[in-house]
Amino acid sequence: MHSQNITLLAQKLRAKEFSSVELTQHFLDRIKQFDTSINSFITITEEKALTAAKIADTRISNGEKNPLIGIPIAHKDLFCTQNTLTTCASKMLNNFVPPYESTVTQRMLDSGSIMLGKTNMDEFAMGSSNENSFFGSVKNPWNLEAVPGGSSGGSAAAVAAGLIVAATGTDTGGSIRQPASFCGITGLKPTYGRVSRFGMIAFASSLDQAGPMARSAEDCAHILNSIAGFDEKDSTSSEAEKEDYTAHLNQPLTGLKIGLPKEYFGDALDQEVAKVTLDAVKEFEKLGATIVDISLPNLNLSIPSYYVIAPSEASSNLSRFDGVRFGHRCDDPKDLLDMYMRSRSEGFGAEVQKRIMVGTYALSEGYYDAYYLKAQKIRRLIKQDFVDALSQVDVIMGPVAPTTAFKLNSKTQDPVAMYLEDIYTLSVNLAGIPAMSIPAGFIDKMPVGLQIMGNYFAEAKLLNVAHQFQQNTDWHTQTPTLAEGV
Amino acid sequence: MNWEIVIGLEIHAQLSTKSKLFSGAAVGFGAEPNTQTALVDLGMPGSLPVLNKEALRMAVMFGHAVNAEIGMKSVFARKNYFYPDLPKGYQTSQMDDPIVGVGHLDITLEDGTVKRVGITRAHLEEDAGKSLHEDFHGMTGIDLNRSSTPLLEIVSEPDIRSAKEAVAYVKMIHSIVTYLGICDGNMAEGSMRCDVNISLRPKGQQEYGTRTEIKNVNSFRFIEKAIHTEVERQADILEDGGRIIQETRLYDPEKDETRSMRSKEDANDYRYFPCPDLLPVILTQEYVDAIRATLPELPAQKAQRFMSEYKLSEYDANVLSSSRDMANYFEVVTQAAKNPKLSANWVMGELSKLLNQNQIDIIDAPVSAENLGLLLQRIEDNTINGKTAKDVFQAIWDGEGTADEIIENKGLKQVTDTKAIEEMIQTILDANQAQVDQYRAAEPDKQKKMTGFFVGQVMKASQGKANPSLVNPILIKLLKG
Fold this sequence. Notes:
The structure holds 2 protein chains of 2 kinds. By secondary structure, chain A is α/β, with parallel strands linked by helices. Chain A has a domain at about 5-255 and about 400-485: Amidase signature (AS) domain (Amidase signature (AS) enzymes, Alpha-Beta Complex), CATH 3.90.1300.10. Chain A is built from 16 helices and 11 strands. Chain A has an 11-stranded mixed sheet with strand order 1-3-2-4-6-5-10-11-9-7-8, with helices on both faces. In chain A, helix 9 crosses helix 11 (about 350-365). The longest helix of chain A has 21 residues, at about 370-390. Chain A is globular. An 8-stranded mixed sheet of chain B has the order 5-6-9-1-10-11-12-13. Chain B has a 3-stranded antiparallel sheet with strand order 4-3-14, with no helix packed on it. The relative contact order of chain B is 0.09. The longest helix of chain B has 20 residues, at about 220-240. Chain B: It holds the Pfam family GatB_N. Chain B: Belongs to the GatB/GatE family. GatB subfamily. Chain B: InterPro entries: Asn/Gln-tRNA_amidoTrfase_suB/E, Asn/Gln-tRNA_Trfase_suB/E_cat, Asn/Gln_amidotransferase, Asn/Gln_tRNA_amidoTrase-B-like, GatB, GatB_C_1, GatB_Yqey_C_2, Gln-tRNA_amidoTrfase_suB_CS. Chain B: Heterotrimer of A, B and C subunits.
């Protein structure tokens, strides 16, 4: 049951091979069995899930068609879920139970999917290894000594380990794609504005975007069908018509033009990762695609630009966590300043505090022009690079990360090495275009993802390209032996 | 030293939208704490702002009213600082690209001269909540009902040169926003709040002196007093050879003094940056023009019309047009009374006096404009005289009925029957033969003075009902024998 895709599960639920209650119980059992070692969940909502599964079974019996009805899923723990703890993996929100539902989780509820719980993540989505969690680091199901990537590491690990059919994640600088790559699953970061941010606890508002993480492009398409589309509660959400993302999956790729940016294959890239990436590209050539060498000349500026803009926005977004109305408040504050300082020092972890300080500095009087404004100018250059490139090609391909999943604690002392993890992903967020990571091979039994980037609102094209690859390869069907063996 | 006073004003006008600037929660004064709050007003994690289009329309309307450039692209920015009643840790405001740009306003001073005051800008921003320090046993209560209430901050150029000018300017802004219906203008409830920037410089000097900002001065009277007090304080320091410290001060109306609140060194670095949760607001020319077409007649235009249409003096026209309610009231009165000058006198005189004494807004006046108009008709058609009319007015105010009912019930109708008046006068002359003899013996210019005695007697005998314009000629005729 736990290695089948949504389309197949939906068929079997309707054929009464098993009920949603049975399916849900199966995944709850797996979570209990395996998650003590993986630590991919912060909260498990067993009772609610089983109640919802009963309702789903009725809906299925009533002939409702939505393939997500009765499908067990999980949400990254930064989507506000009404009456269910939402922590952002932070001590700051250790006790926060939202009185409202985020648009993403509401739409997933409406489509009939069953939430089994909330997944672990880097605190406030800040991190590339899921080691910055108040609830402990998440382990990579392919190797428990390796990181799952971050920040949506819990979602990626849970999907990879077969603890859940699919999950939501968010991607501010690579937080869906990099853990998808490290855990050997399929993840999609949609165009900025395609999915509502309402109820998503903000890290960097101009970069944050929610998306699906699943075992295949087809499964991602089902979930995107549910969560995409305009939301009047989010002023930055796009009014562009949403499509049926499953409709074009089977289109042949004959004539597809793939751009390979030379900057993505520089010295920083592990040679074996480069080989896996290029092998995958060759597979596309077999499917009728042609390769075009392109350039994204400002790629090297994306890290400095990102690490000004994202912390700047974060420093402001996280100001509301002040101990006044919700979340952690220090004991016995002497006065207001003491309450602010101790509540925030105690509530936020080291990485979050570091980024708040960087952002506060970058926005300070006298530094604003040199940092924030300059970073915004670079952002426009990077965006223009993509616009230019995507006027020549249909999609751009490259690696997701310079390496496969690295060992736990191996980069925690070296923030720059950690930030370089995101070199191939964060320019996409700066530009606001959609991008995916799909499993493309293995190095030393660790998965390697291929990144596919497309034009604004070209999610259907990306999913089509990814699906065609997955119809002709079996990388995405591999599962870690750990999960199967235990 | 002869000092020149330099004043610039920042006025926060609360826009009369139904809901808040960035949420659907109702705007209202006096509700139970924290009952008028949406998620974003509480700063809930994951909540997002959605701009109230009505507030935008009101801001554009104001821009038109002060002849300002409208920001075709305006940008909301975050002003970051920590305060318990600022739930998000930042105030969403506008910085580099405000909705209203450079404009100007003409104010009429007491001596009748017209002065132009520059408007630097006006921008939309959200209000904060309130901290409540009483009744919480050493703790502070937070009420977020006011959080995200829409404000229009109107910033003037430092063009104002006296307390009187400052008050005239604030009154004009008050008239405009209430005329436009974009602010209720209630200063006591904080719907209009004023920050006053004051500096002094020796007369003739070009560059400005160091200024102080007096926060939240909330009545016309306090604005005038606060400026006088602060000017005096600054002049004393400067004349003693001291320096003014740039700082924010508070005016204490009870002690009539200003106190330092925080100096420039303590001031927050607000770390303004464009709010990433709100897209830039792009306006079309059609939208801006459509709003211009809805502008009502503004105070200055109305005053002009009152002068040309009703032949009122400039002073009367300005007073009557200073509030839209008063202007409307006046126009209804004069339509019935058919005598603009008489109507103006009554609205500005008797009516305003009673309204002030009883602290009542003209819109709630116990005497309706129609009723006052009918009363004035009775003066015009000689049914009653002006003196009786005042008593009738008081009776209408007290709820005793309409003018006609009161005149009828109390038998106040003026005696206009010449024969009856003649008989009445004759009786009085007969009863005062000595005075009549004196009169007849007196010089003509003495006689004039002496008629007053007889008029008084007649009015007394008639209980004020004798028509004075009839009494006089008959009296003189009979006196002369």
